[in-house]
Each structure stands twice: as structure tokens, then as C-alpha cells.
């Protein structure tokens, strides 16, 4: 591009040093950016500092650490999307054997890099829950599906590069069409399963964050205004994520997230203009709304007396 070419030379010391130090340079720039925009960024909830990491970890006991690591390990080896990628790579290998394409070394590189990327990413994710996430969020692996989808996207890009490389090396047109047709069929089956057997999906769908979509739809459908005061009822597993999402969407600092287990937790609800319910299956919340706002029963957004003043 622009007449500039680049080739990685494994014997070039400068390139190796550049690769090693790029993450640290990025971290330095990130700290500079945060400090410039947010004076208290170094003491924020998820501050990327050794001091904060140590403090977050110290709030977890041995049982907490064991539980978090066990949960991450169980999650890392399960899940439909993980199985889909494994199946897809296996199908690619079967197609290579069927078409008698001699690229065994390249294929094993793909398998090794995919496994290495996934394992490394999940180890990093485990460290994030240990050193950066508060206790309850960490033990519940808050929003881990959303995090893992990032590495899945990277692995699929790697598979695309591999497939392009293989296709460009196949001279026999018949073999090329068999290989390409097999890839399309595999993608169709995988994305069909991803859609739960519904209508034929578009292969390159945009990534949809279910929690974020639900929050945005609730706010939009109920015409919730910005910069008001809000009490949000949230399940414990997604409390932190929904809280920050609401702050971002509603442009308000007057937001109180709560996981409701008993009615007294809602006694001060009159101090807020709106009650946003993202924990609709919570029977305590349902009963409380029925008693105090019977005319708004079943709604996801409750307008309080303060709003109606």
C-alpha cells in the first residue's frame, strides 16, 4: 500500500524488539490518555496499575481464586461457538485430504496458532478476573461470553488468511471449486446452527451484544430521557456492565444499580425519577411493583412520583 512493503524477518533483532515493546508503549500511551482526560483514572475501579491489581487480588481469598480459575477453565473448554470453530478447522483438514492438497505443514501451523491464541487469551482473561474484577463479578465471570467472542473473531480471520493462501496455491480448478464449496457449506451449517435453525443467515453478521441490545431497546422503546436520576434493578451477574452501559447511554451520574433480594432495598426509590428493570424474572421486584405501581405492572421502566411532580 502507498508503495511501501513490509516483510517480517525472524533474524532481525530490531523487529523482534519492536514486537516485544509495542504492548508496553501502548500501555504507556493509554495511561497518558486516561490521566489527561480523567484525573482520578489511576484509582478508578479497573485502573491498569500494579497497585490496583494488588488491591483487587487481596480482596479475594484462596477459595475465591480457586473458584474463579475453575470457572474459567470449565468455560474455556465448553460452548457452542468453541465447538463450531473446532469443527470448522477439522472440516478444512478433511477437505485438504479429500482434494489431496499437500499443505500438511501449513495446516498444522493453523491448528497450532489457533490453539495458542485461544489458550493465551483465556489465560489473560483469567488474570483479568483475578486482578481487575471485584469479587462477585469475578466469581460469576461477568460477561465472559462477550470477552471470548473477541478471540473467536481473531481465529476466524486467521482461518480466512489460511484459506486464501491454500486457494491461491491450488492449480487444479476442480479441486479449487471442491475446496471452496466445502468451505461455504461448512460456514452455512455453522451459522445455521448459530441462528438456531431459523431463517438463512447472512454469513458476515455484525456481532450482537445481547445485553447491550436489551438495554438500548428498553431505553428507546420507553422513551427514557437522558440526564435524569435512575434506579436500575439488575441481576448480579451483569450488574457492573449494565451500570456502566446505562451511564454511557443516559449521560447521567445519578444511577444506582441494585440486585434486589428484599423489598426494603427499594424504600428510597422515590428519590429517583425512573426505575429501570433489567431483572424481570425477579419475583421480589415484580411483587413490589404490583404493590406500589399497579398501573405500571409488567413494564420495564417505572416512572416514579418524583418524575411526575
Oligomer: single chain
Helix content: 55-70%
Ranges where pLDDT stays below 50 over 5 or more residues in a row are 1-6, 197-209
Task: Please tell me how large the radius of gyration is.
Answer: 25 Å
Which geometry do the CA atoms define? Answer: globular
Total domain units? 2
Can you put this structure into words, describing what you see?
- The chain folds into two domains: 49-194, no CATH class; 210-308.
- It is built from twelve helices and four strands.
- It has helices spanning 13-37, 50-58, 62-76, 80-98, 104-131, 135-139, 144-169, 173-194, 210-221, 239-250, 283-292, 305-308, and strands at 230-233, 255-258, 274-277, 301-303.
- Helix 3 (62-76) runs antiparallel to helix 5 (104-131).
Q: Can you tag this structure with a few keywords?
A:
309 residues; 12 helices; globular; mainly alpha; disordered N terminus; single chain
Amino acid at each position: 500500500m502507498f508503495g511501501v512493503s513490509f516483510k517480517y524477518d525472524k533474524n532481525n533483532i530490531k523487529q523482534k524488539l519492536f514486537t516485544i515493546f509495542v504492548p508496553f508503549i501502548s500501555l504507556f500511551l493509554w495511561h497518558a490518555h486516561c490521566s489527561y482526560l480523567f484525573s482520578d483514572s489511576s484509582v478508578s475501579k479497573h485502573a491498569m496499575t500494579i497497585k490496583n491489581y494488588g488491591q483487587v487480588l487481596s480482596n479475594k481469598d484462596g477459595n475465591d481464586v480457586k473458584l474463579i480459575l475453575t470457572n474459567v477453565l470449565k468455560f474455556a473448554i465448553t460452548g457452542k461457538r468453541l465447538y463450531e470453530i473446532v469443527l470448522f478447522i477439522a472440516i478444512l483438514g478433511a477437505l485438504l485430504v479429500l482434494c489431496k492438497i499437500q499443505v500438511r505443514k501449513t495446516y498444522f501451523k493453523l491448528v497450532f496458532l489457533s490453539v495458542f491464541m485461544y489458550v493465551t487469551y483465556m489465560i489473560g482473561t483469567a488474570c483479568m478476573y483475578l486482578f481487575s474484577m471485584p469479587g462477585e463479578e469475578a466469581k460469576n465471570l461477568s460477561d465472559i461470553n462477550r470477552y471470548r467472542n473477541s478471540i473467536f473473531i481473531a481465529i476466524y480471520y486467521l482461518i480466512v488468511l489460511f484459506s486464501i493462501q491454500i486457494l491461491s496455491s491450488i492449480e487444479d480448478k476442480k479441486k479449487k471449486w471442491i475446496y471452496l464449496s466445502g468451505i461455504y457449506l461448512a460456514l452455512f451449517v455453522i451459522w445455521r446452527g448459530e441462528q438456531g435453525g431459523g431463517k438463512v443467515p447472512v454469513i458476515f453478521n455484525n456481532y450482537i451484544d445481547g445485553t447491550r441490545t436489551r438495554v438500548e431497546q428498553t431505553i428507546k422503546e420507553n422513551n427514557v430521557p437522558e440526564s435524569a436520576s435512575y434506579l436500575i434493578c439488575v441481576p448480579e451477574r451483569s450488574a457492573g456492565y449494565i451500570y456502566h452501559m446505562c451511564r454511557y447511554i443516559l449521560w447521567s451520574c445519578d444511577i444506582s444499580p441494585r440486585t434486589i433480594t428484599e423489598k426494603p432495598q427499594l424504600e428510597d426509590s422515590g428519590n429517583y425519577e425512573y426505575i429501570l428493570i433489567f431483572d424481570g424474572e425477579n419475583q421480589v421486584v415484580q411483587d413490589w411493583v404490583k404493590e406500589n405501581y399497579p398501573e405500571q405492572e409488567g413494564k420495564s421502566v417505572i416512572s416514579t412520583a418524583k418524575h411526575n411532580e
